[in-house]
Specification:
By secondary structure, the protein is an alpha+beta fold. It folds into two domains: 74 residues, no CATH class; 193 residues, Aminopeptidase (3-Layer(aba) Sandwich), CATH 3.40.630. It is globular and about 65 Å long. The chain starts with a strand and ends with a helix. 36% of the residues lie in helices and 20% in strands. Helix 2 packs across helix 3. A hairpin with a 2-residue loop joins strand 1 and strand 2. It contains eleven helices and eleven strands.
Length: 291
């Protein structure tokens, strides 16, 4: 059997497939978590903090099963994603019109949202209710921020998660090789959600928040995951927004997507075209990314 392909941005070979099939035969009583942890250990799938990338491996196993390459053991309990994907419970919040100047709300507070905290429940609900794409859960490395004005009233939510596996205009801007991309993609993050709450009207607030966040983002990522971030990307849906706040905050427009999306098969456009914006966090980001 010959298999040389990328799955989840990682090279996947026939040798790895044989390993998985062998473990399934030799250990028929193993549940999915036991299997994924064994594979993470064998493949060295750990983040810089030394933690096994268990969720990434389980996601890979599900993709292999969808392709008909393996048959996983039945789930022993309901998927945790079923709990994560449920509609967030409504959280009381202030939604009266808030129209003022930027100076009146400074200094802003940037709260790193931690799982299980009151801020996490509010963050989840606000994005789900008010962001045009909604939001349910995150898989993989991510950081969430709840932004409040000087007296503690929430103004905005930001979510940073995994970078796109491929993006032609981004990859051309970086100038990295395929091998460097596979090795260094973890040093990028995607600003997947940015919400200014709909009752908030503060001129220049969005670009000010982006400027503040990108100054601390790499350090916060290092603190949580044990490695820095050198480049941030975002994709702005052109039929909804002009990307003005990203431009004002110094993000660089580098092109547009093809409309295929992350998992779309074939070459035909499957979704809306988006403008690609990038924000280098270091002057030597290309060298750091192996370009």
């Amino acid at each position: 059997m010959r298999i040389d392909t990328l799955i989840q941005g990682r090279p996947f070979s026939a040798r790895k497939l044989v390993q998985i099939r062998t473990l399934l035969v030799e250990h028929p009583t193993w549940h999915r978590t036991r299997l994924s942890r064994e594979l993470c250990g064998r493949w060295g799938w750990r983040n810089e903090a030394g933690e096994l990338k268990d969720m990434a491996c389980r996601s890979l196993l599900l993709k292999l099963q969808d392709r008909g390459w393996i048959q996983l053991p039945a789930r022993q309990r309901a998927s945790v994603n079923g709990w994560r994907n449920r509609t967030p419970v409504e959280v009381p919040h202030e939604d009266r019109p808030f129209h003022t100047s930027l100076e009146a709300v400074r200094p802003l507070s940037m709260h790193r949202v931690t799982p299980g905290s009151p801020e996490a429940r509010l963050f989840q609900f606000l994005l789900h209710r008010y962001h045009y794409l909604s939001h349910r859960n995150c898989v993989g490395e991510n950081l969430k921020y709840l932004v409040s004005e000087r007296h503690g009233r929430p103004l905005a939510c930001l979510l940073f998660g995994s970078a796109a596996w491929k993006c032609r205009s981004r990859d051309a801007f970086i100038g990295w090789s395929k091998l460097s991309q596979q090795h260094s993609l973890r040093l990028l993050t995607n600003n997947t959600r940015f919400l200014i709450l709909p009752w908030v009207r503060v001129p220049h607030l969005a670009s000010h928040i982006l400027s503040l966040i990108t100054r601390r983002l790499s350090g916060d990522w290092q603190d949580k995951y044990g490695h820095p971030i050198h480049l941030v990307e975002t994709f702005v849906q052109r039929d909804h927004f002009a990307g003005t706040c990203y431009r004002a905050a110094g993000w660089i427009p580098v092109g547009t997507t093809t409309g295929r999306g992350r998992n779309a098969p074939g070459m035909a456009a499957q979704g809306p075209f988006k403008e690609v914006f990038l924000k280098p966090l270091r002057a030597d980001f290309r060298q750091r990314l192996g370009a």
